[in-house]
Amino acid sequence: MSKGLRKGLTSYGDAGFSLFLRKAFIKAAGYSDDALDRPIVAITDTESDYNPCHGNAPQLLEAISRGVMLAGGLPMRFPTISIGESFANPTSMYLRNLMAMDTEEMLRAQPMDAAVILGGCDKTLPAALMGAVSANVPVVTVPVGPMVVGHHRGEVLGACTDCRRLWGLHRAGKMDEAEVEVVSGRLAPSVGTCMVMGTASTMAILIEAMGLSLPNSACIPAPHAERLRCGEASGKVAVALAAGGPRPRDLVTPASVRNAMVLLQATGGSTNGLVHLTAIAGRAGITLDLAEFDRIGRQVPVLVDLKPSGEHYMEHLHHAGGVPRLLRELAPHLDMTAPTVTGGTLQDYADAAEEVPGQTVIRVIKPVGGMAVLRGNLCPGGAVIKHSAASPALMRHEGRAVVFTSVRDMTERVDDPALDVTADDILVLQNAGPKGAPGMPEAGYLPIPKKLGAAGVKDMVRISDARMSGTAFGTIVLHVTPESAVGGPLGLVRTGDRIRLDVEARELTLLVEEAELERRRAAFAGAPPLPKRGYARLFQQEVLQADEGCDFAFLKGTDD
Ligand code: FES
């Protein structure tokens, strides 16, 4: 089998000429024959001025390249789409599959023996890995790492759990404009990804637990020197992979996907992690079993005292022993024989865990896992609630629905003083799912109506087919499937209907007679019209529901 520069020749009808031409052009960049004879390790460059979370990418790319060269390989960087969470319109999720396609096709198209995937901001690592699993090129993943914490008036702050909390204070009139401006400069005090247990942290942890990155790579803070050493070590591992190490589909297996589900429950991880894990598994032809995910949630505790479920931040988790220590604690629930990019097993990662006397971050903070999967006539395909970050008093609640028919409708009316709403009501948001919004925005964290916020209401039951940032707190039911825009029961809810949430029983019930629901169903106007052209059309046509990871239908599974 051809190697390095000889791989995947451009088609000119003459292989010798194709290689000759390729060499002629690459020599224009000053490479020697010695360099060009080395195994090629490609590195995805996801640096972008629109993605400040990846602000340390230049140094990390250098460190990874150094590692590749130290091990005798030739590093070759290439750019891919980079998605900065708060810079993507309408929502980063809308672009995740585009980045996955970009990564997959460029991994296939260009000559390489292995690759290093560099990413971190929420959708970037899931997208890159979805692509890598489909291309099945040997890869090692390097997360950019979490930010360090911020400080304000003696308080430790972090993006973005505290962004929401402090914005909530501002909305309620308890923090003035001037202070909000000051705080905006302190919530994200360094490069790196959000330092709470948001989607970026969750995905970095799941990826490490699946053996797709080096031990400790999830939690080392982005600005630390250790992060660069992790990059250098990953470059070396990539050269070993180029000589014949495990490929992504050797690592993304039913056992490793289950291991990741355990970590997702035990970290109080982001609900988005479930969607992304489903999509990554789907690329390897594995169906994520939501019932099993829920069962795991009843068996494993939340073991990480990190916001939004707890008190600490990612740098504290790192200093407490990071993922290796978590793996050691969770070993009875895990398949420790699962292979890793290093050529060993997950047990090796756990064995490398540092003992940290007196640490208080890795400990049981809730007796059961972070998430529950709900079923019922309101969500036949399932819905999810992160109950570890919800109000215990609302875990069993019946209330009157107050319905918003779209994100726009919610934005326009939720703060209207005339809105008929009380703290016992249940806020319902429709048409915010994968096809409805489109892109399933993080709109599931419906704001508490201003007048209730001002009266001291901090949480209410909120239900939608949208997603929610992993950094958010509240009694929030998400990913209702099927979504309202394709005729799901959520779209049949009307203001005044009664809804019952029972998290212990895993039930979400719309208390309306079936005959009445049938009448409403008959009046359903149909799915939104297809956009005329471009990616918008492809997205609308192909995007799957949350229980299938919101991947595109034609990208699931393997060619073999
Ligand atoms: Fe990039 Fe949170 S905004 S990780």
How would you explain this protein's 3D organization?
- The protein is an alpha/beta fold.
- Helix content is 36%, strand content 13%.
- It is built from 20 helices and 16 strands.
- The chain has an eight-stranded mixed beta sheet. A four-stranded parallel beta sheet has the order 2-1-3-4, with helices on both faces. The chain has a two-stranded antiparallel sheet with strand order 5-6.
- Helix 17 (407-413) links the parallel strand 11 and strand 12.
- The longest helix has 18 residues, at 92-109.
- It binds FE2/S2 (inorganic) cluster.
- Residues 53, 85-86, 121-122, 193-194, 198, 200 line the site of FE2/S2 (inorganic) cluster.
What integer value in Å does the Rg equal?
A: 24 Å
Quickly count the helices: 20
The small-molecule ligands in this entry are: FE2/S2 (inorganic) cluster
pLDDT averaged residue by residue: 95
Order of strands across the main sheet: 9-10-14-13-12-11-15-16
Summing up helix and strand content along with how strands pair, one would put the structural category as alpha/beta
Number of strands: 16
Query: Could you give a short account of the major beta sheet?
Result: 8 strands, mixed
Uncertain stretches: none
> What's the structural domain tally?
3
Distance between the termini: 19 Å
Percent of residues in helices comes to 25-40%
What is the beta-strand fraction? Answer: 5-15%
